[in-house]
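Example record

The entry below shows one chain as it appears in the dataset: sequence first, then structure tokens.
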Amino acid sequence: MKRLFDELITERQFLKLYYDQDVTQVNIVGQLAQDDLKDLYQGINVSDVVTHFSYKAKIDPTIKQQKDTIISNGLKSNKSITHLDLHQDNVYQTNVHGILPQMLETPHNIIYLDLANNNFPPNSGKIIASGLKGNQVLRYLNLEGNSLDHNNIEPISFALQFNQVLEYLNLDSNKIGENGAKCLSQLLKDHSSLKNLSIKGNSLNEYGSSLIIESLNPDCLEYLDISANSIGTQGARALGQFIKITNSLQQLYSSQNNLHSEQIRYINSGLKDNKTIKLIELSGNYPEELGNKALVANLSVNNSIEQFILKNNSLNYERIKYWSDAIAVNNGLRYLDLGGNNLSEASILLLSNAFKENNSIIKLGLSYTQLGETGAICLAKVLSANKSITHLDISNNQIQSKGIEALSEIIDRMQYLNLGNNNFGSKGIEFLAEGLKANKVLVSLDLTRCSLSDLDIGIIFDSLENNPCLIKLNFSNNNINNNGAKIIADKMATNKTIAILDMSHNSINNTGVDHIADLIKNNSYVANINLTGSNQFQIQWIQKITDALNSHNNILKIDGLPDNTGNLSAKIVKNQQLLHYNLAKLTEKTFVFEDKEELHKNLLTIVKQIQSSCGKLPPQTLTNKEIGTSKDYLSIIKDLFSEDVSNEVENPYISVLSHTDLLGSYEDWLEN
């Protein structure tokens, strides 16, 4: 870590990088020692263009308290930081009373604050509240996983009443309970700006849940997660009423609430006339026959719902009958997830009739449904008659070679394919490869825990060599050793599409580091490599990776390397900065994105253009004239992005465009 700051600060390159390359984000990573504290302070203090500060470093326990003091003092002097990320035990408990208020009070321009999973000591609510009270610009607040009870929530709720612009509030996995719900409900009544509320796992029970729901603004709230709160009949009644009157809610999560048929009917009564909700998640509720019939009746007539998630709901053959009829006639549904339900062959056949009629569903989730060989063969027949499904998750289903042989006939049109935790055997790998060879549209392939050997890896790569679209490839938890690492490095040398490569939890050690370094040196397209888990690397070998990064400007993240890799951290930080710089030069503007749906539709094209342009040309030559072939890309950018950066404070979906944002958004899109 000291070498990181030696490069970026001691040699005065820190300011130069940020001024010359217009970089706004700094992530502190690696291992922080006593000698680094002064540099850390200077790093926070000196720059007036850094807007995002994220601290992820591991430090010696004896200097945790000093670290918080340094961060706090640095923030006092810095008026440019608006985004502060200190989640996951980054704030030392004994410092909460003395340091945390200063972090929050100075400056008062923090609009994004993440303090999740810090395990604050009892009665920390007053301390947090004292810092929040003066902040009237905060828009994003994450206090997830901090054991906050009603005594802590009360002062925080009171402090936030002075803030009338808060849009995102995450209080998941705390101890709010019914008493805390009373305090929080008063805050929600006074807040007309809140668009995203997540409060799952807080033991709200019936009374507390109803208080919270009745306090929500039906004309503003867009996202609500009230899962795992035992909302009961009273809460379900309130939720149904809110759904009935809301003009804004788009996503509703109410999983693991043990909803019975009567409670489901209350929710369903609201859904009948609702045209705004696009996603409903009711997993882990186990409704009886009447509850299923009520939901099915709604789904049969409500075509505004695009995503229905019903995982782990004990959907047996009789209940699948109802759902099959509803799915057949709903032409608005795009994503159906029935994972975790034990679907028999007869159940799959019932669904086949639905999928023959329904051409709107694009994504189908069937993980943990115990398909086995016969179920997979039956599913292949079902999907052969349906050409619309291109996203398929059939992981964890005990599918072997015969099942893969049948599925290979429909693999050629899949864009997203998750086959994880299915042991196909060598014969099954050959069938899979045949299907992949014919696929020219695959974007993401997940082969986690498939017992792949080094030979299997080579076969898979050979089958993908003519695929022009593949972005994400997951080989985690297999039997890949150093020979497999060499095969991957050799195959990746000529690959120009894969940006995200997961090799975590395999058996690669120091001998394989040379191959990983070759992969980085020879491939200018990969941006994220995951090596965490059982792979073993010693620190002295990391220099090979560091040296390889000298010839690669695209790496944003390498997971799973030892601590004390400060120089490597510096290289990755510089790579991220160069990518942001390249993009800014390429567009000659700072763009923001407003329409996420439209962005996602075109993201594949955008990412590829960024990779090809930024990977081949040095920053100083990236001008519109010299890019030449990027005219189509520039027109896409202009169509998708607003040039009015001032709109950022008006729209919760807007964020400043960077390669990190694109990659993160693309990963989210791949999963959703």
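Notes for this example: The first strand starts at residue 25 and ends at 28. Confidence is low (pLDDT under 50) at residues 1-23, 580-672.
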